[in-house]
Design a protein that fits this description.
alpha+beta; about 220 residues; 3-stranded antiparallel sheet; 5-stranded antiparallel sheet; elongated
Length: about 220
């Protein structure tokens, strides 16, 4: 059977298309037939740790984040002093360093009482947990052996930030771990050295916030 010229032209035109289709089919069949293997590490996640501090200056010695004043004394005179203990509790999951400092100091304008209110701070270790012996009352009854960290420093000269003071407590941290420290704070109304200087302080007041911070 003889082919016409137009038929030969059609064959030449479609031959490349048929060739491409055939090549694609071979590639698809080759890919489909290849061996495969895979491995994975699924479900990756990240959760941050925590730092958490409370102290026992809440009602009836309850542990709270923001408690009440350890001291609220009036009618003091030069030479007087007083003490109170505060138990600080950490339930954080990460290790850190605990530090004590003051903020919002008042009574610094002349005639200033703040320079004459001098603080001494001692720290003692308590057992971990929340049972007996892990908290000391404000009276300091049952307080453990204490180590001094601040000795007779004027209220207005105490550190006022975490970075300005030294470490007083190294915390291990850990899930389900409760760590405790007792801080005994003693104040003394120091004399100016003269009756005239002391008389200028009559009716004056001074104040500060006690802060414990862990980082």
């Amino acid at each position: 059977m003889r082919t016409t010229r137009s038929q030969r032209r059609m064959v030449r035109a479609i031959a490349p298309v048929v060739g491409l289709l055939a090549a694609g089919l071979l590639v698809w069949q080759g890919s489909y037939a290849a061996f495969t293997a895979s491995t994975s590490s699924p479900g990756n996640s990240w959760t941050s740790g925590t730092v958490a501090l409370t102290n026992n200056t809440g009602a009836a010695g309850a542990f709270v984040v923001t408690g009440t004043a350890s001291f609220s004394v009036t009618n003091i005179k030069p030479g007087q002093s007083g003490s109170a203990c505060v138990t600080v509790r950490s339930t954080g999951t990460v290790a850190g360093n605990g530090r004590f400092y003051v903020q919002n100091v008042t009574g610094t304008l002349a005639p200033a009482l703040a320079p004459q209110i001098q603080l001494t701070v001692d720290v003692g270790a308590l057992p971990n947990g929340t049972g007996a012996g892990t908290s000391i009352p404000a009276s300091c009854a049952g307080a453990p052996a204490l180590a001094n960290i601040i000795n007779g420093v004027a209220l207005n000269a105490l550190p006022t930030s975490y970075g300005a003071t030294g470490n007083s407590w190294t915390l291990a941290g850990g899930t389900g771990v409760t760590e405790n420290r007792v801080y005994k704070i003693t104040w003394t109304f120091a004399t100016t050295g003269t009756n005239a200087g002391d008389n200028l302080l009559q009716g004056r007041s001074a104040g500060a916030d006690f802060v414990w911070e862990v980082q």
